[in-house]
Amino acid sequence: MLYTLGTIGGTIFLTPTLGAYGPIVGTLIGAVIYVLGRLFAIQWSGYRFGLRLWHPDLKRLGIMMLPRMIALGILQLELLVFDGVASGLPAGSVTVNAFTRNFQSFIMGLSGMALGLAIFSLLSQAAAKNEWNRLGST
Per residue in 39-56, pLDDT tens? Predict the structure, then answer.
């Protein structure tokens, strides 16, 4: 909400002096106010900030990221090949190719996001309570 208010305020009050940069600066001011408010709330709750440059789980995280990184790289190559092939076809083929990719992800996004949102609280409660056997039954 502060981003939006910052954008509106920047548009109304800063555009006359900053031009097109008015909404950008207003949004930045709104974001800074939001972050300062969150930092104040964290500090007020008793949390103390500390700087730690390494966490023991970072190595495991890096190893777990490798398959996903490889899959994303292969996906980019696949899209490059499809667009290359579509460029040699009649006009509009690249657009049709992009549309089919978007339509393909629509169904997964619609059902996957709904399912993910519905089950997230149950899974996170089971993980927090260390009831790992519940993760397979949900």
Answer: 999 988 988 877 788 888
Say what the pTM is: 0.41
End-to-end CA distance of the chain, in Å?
35
> How many residues are present in the chain?
138
Q: How far, in Å, CA of 61 to CA of 98, rounded?
A: 32
Q: Give one DSSP letter per residue of 69-130, joined into a string.
A: HHHHHHHHHHHHHHHHHHHTSSTTHHHHHHHHHHHHHHHHHHHHHHHHHHHHHHHHHHHHTT
Cα separation, 97 vs 82, in Å, equals 8
CA 75 to chain CA centroid, nearest Å: 18
Tell me which residue has tokens 């992009």: 98
Query: For the chain, which ranges sit under pLDDT 70?
Result: 137-138
Cα(27)–Cα(20) distance, integer angstroms: 12
Alpha-carbon distances of 123 from 57, 60, 114, rounded to whole Å: 21, 21, 14
| SS3 of the chain: helix, strand, coil, percent, to 5 | 80, 0, 20
